[in-house]
Design brief:
The complex is a heterodimer.
Chain A: H1 2-7, H2 13-22, H3 27-45, E1 48-51, H4 53-68, E2 80-84, H5 111-118, E3 122-127, H6 161-168, E4 174-179, H7 185-191, E5 194-197, E6 217-222, H8 225-235, E7 265-269, H9 279-294, E8 298-302, H10 310-325, H11 344-355, H12 358-371, H13 376-397, E9 403-407, H14 423-427, H15 434-439, E10 442-450, E11 456-463, H16 468-481
Parallel strand pairs in A: 2-3, 2-4, 7-8, 7-9
Antiparallel strand pairs in A: 1-3, 4-6, 5-6, 5-10, 9-11, 10-11
Chain B: H1 9-18, H2 25-42, H3 60-63, H4 82-86
Classes of the chains: A alpha/beta, B mainly alpha.
């Protein structure tokens, strides 16, 4: 058991499946080992909001039963996973990190989770996150912050902080997170794990508690690139329950992953290496780029000229959509209802005021303002126009390069409390990630060295729409070369 | 949006009402400060001439997988079972959601 515990972080998905198949490992023992690890570490990390041992052990027993009978095992057989608490699972709590959903149990399961479970994954529990996925540090969770496993006084990033920290601390082999402006890639960078932002439409959003519907995406966190490719292959694909999910076939993401980078054209945008980039992050990213060059890639300097407008564009579009999406939390059908209101409108206001945290209110206010009469053209329409310019920057760049390399975040993980009083400085933590969110392209963060203090640094690899296979191939090379 | 666009306390109150939020006096002051800081940052967008740029609402517009990908046959399918949904309601008689009176005087 102890051996399993310390080993969890080093286990790969294919190892788990093949060892269960051959009888040298047991899904139940592995799930128990993960729960032991949660007991040992999570009091100080706080990645999990809830665990469901009984349900997980039932799932594990089914896998062990299949193995005993010698039946073929599905691709994620016995893989212990955690799910960000903005995704629903029938009968389990779904808080979205908010008081307004405290005690709420979902009546249906998100498609991405359903696909994981159908592939044999063992769901350990639901993971902490910023309230309604709004945040870059996980400090906006109504249930308390997550601590970075590499340095407990630092943030794990956000909003999928629990998802990144759980993998980094060996409390799950894979997790699902969501990314609206960087919420998978930035915590992956801060916690030293792999995190993928799939192309918009690649993974169904059914069962995702919506933040900004034109930007929200679901993607995996894992300890290595190959596992991330495996999980992505499981959760991707068309879903009749999400009209924006793409009917394009899902390729085999593993097939070309070891092709290397020789002959590839990799773009390096000057705008991502300007003022504000931490020198240690710059050095680590430049070192990875040099290794890719030495491995045969052609490194091309490129320009994405509208990059500096991405943060203001994002914060108008995302908050406008959020103000509409969060209108459904009104105390009528589910969630928190303020007691003893005389009228319906008083009940709405008091339930929302008592249920939402400060950052969520701030974003609802900003989005409502941007959409209100007299300001719509000046803010919302303007932001949508700039969104097109930002997207066209990428389309032009991808005519010349196969993938783009940038830092994932301007700094390593910052200290808990450092930015909480300054929303603009907090928003700037997403400066390198929001562009891909607005353009709908795919991206990922792969570990690329550490700072002198031992804090992880992530390389962001961006790819064309639906070209996840390419960024995974580049990421595999980065992982091999580091 | 001008570079000097500023939000007043009255704007904060009006927007809070639109958003069905009830802010305390303290929250109003913080909101005023934060919205002005954020909108100050947003005013950078005025540097760009976008008069000839069409607004982009979502990514399908530029990757061209077209509306046929989002249209489906108009068929009825079963919805969630009422009892499962009503189990989450704060106040219900099992069939309807119960709320305080709607008509105000």
């Amino acid at each position: 058991m102890t051996l399993e515990t310390t080993e969890t972080k080093l286990l790969s998905i294919s190892d788990i499946r093949s060892s269960i198949e051959s009888g040298t490992r047991n899904a139940t023992v592995l799930a128990e080992a993960c729960f032991h690890q949660v007991e040992a570490r999570d009091a100080e990390i706080h990645a999990y909001l809830s665990t469901n041992r009984e349900r997980a052990l039932e799932q594990a027993a089914r896998i062990d039963d299949l193995a005993t009978k010698g039946e073929p095992l599905p691709v994620l057989a016995g893989v212990p996973v955690g799910i960000k608490d903005v995704l629903t699972i029938e009968g389990l709590q779904a808080t979205a990190g908010s008081k307004i959903l405290q005690g709420y149990c979902a009546p249906y399961t998100a498609t991405a989770v359903k696909k994981l479970e159908a592939a044999g994954a063992i769901v350990l529990g639901k993971l902490n996150c910023d309230e309604f996925a709004m945040g870059s540090s996980n400090e906006n969770s109504a249930y308390g912050p997550v601590h970075n496993p590499h340095a407990l006084d630092r943030v794990p990033g956000g909003s999928s902080g629990g998802s990144a920290a759980a993998v980094a601390a060996g409390m799950a082999v894979a997790t699902l997170g969501t990314d609206t402006g960087g919420s998978i890639r930035q915590p992956a960078s801060f916690c030293g794990v792999v995190g993928i932002l799939p192309t918009y439409g690649r993974v169904s959003r059914y069962g995702l508690i919506a933040f900004a519907s034109s930007l929200d995406r679901i993607g995996p966190f894992t300890a290595n690139v190959r596992d991330a490719a495996t999980v992505l292959g499981v959760i991707a694909g068309h879903d009749p329950m999400d009209a924006t999910s793409s009917p394009l076939p899902v390729p085999d993401y593993i097939a070309g992953i070891d092709k290397g980078v020789a002959g590839l054209r990799l773009g390096v945008p000057s705008e991502y290496f300007a003022e504000g980039l931490d020198p240690e992050v710059r050095a680590a990213i430049e070192s990875s780029i040099e290794k890719l060059r030495a491995a045969g890639a052609t490194i091309k300097p490129i320009s994405l000229p509208h990059t500096r407008y991405a943060i203001p564009t994002y914060y108008i579009i995302a908050t406008a959509e959020a103000s509409a999406n969060l209108a459904r939390f009104d105390g009528v059908r589910y969630g928190y209802r303020a007691k003893d209101s005389d009228t319906l409108s008083a009940m709405y206001r008091r339930s929302r005021d008592g249920g939402f945290g400060a950052e969520v209110k701030r974003r609802i206010m900003l989005g409502t303002y941007a959409l209100s009469a007299g300001y719509y053209d000046a803010y919302y329409k303007k932001a949508q126009q700039v969104r097109r310019l930002l997207t066209e920057d990428f389309l032009k760049a991808f005519a010349e390069v196969d993938a783009i390399l940038t830092p994932t975040a301007p700094t390593p993980a910052f200290k808990i409390g450092e930015k909480v009083d300054d929303p603009v400085s907090m928003y700037l933590a997403d400066i390198y990630t929001v562009t891909a969110s607005l353009a709908g392209i795919c991206g990922l963060s792969v570990p690329s060295g550490k700072s002198q203090e031992g804090l992880p640094i992530g390389l962001q690899i961006l790819g064309k729409h639906f070209d996840e296979a390419m960024i995974l191939r580049v990421a595999q090379s980065v992982e091999n070369l580091n | 949006m001008s570079d000097s666009a500023t939000v007043s306390v009255n704007d904060v109150r009006r927007v809070a009402e639109l958003a069905n939020l009830e802010l305390t006096a303290e929250e109003e002051i913080r909101m005023l400060r934060d919205l002005n800081a954020i909108l100050g940052h947003v005013s950078q967008l005025n540097e760009l001439d976008t008069s000839a740029v069409a607004p982009m609402a979502q990514v399908h517009e530029v990757i061209g997988d077209g509306p046929q990908s989002v249209l489906r046959p108009d068929q009825t399918v079963p919805c969630l079972d009422r009892s499962r949904v009503m189990a989450s309601a704060p106040d219900t008689d099992g069939i309807f959601f119960k709320v305080p009176k709607v008509i105000e005087r």
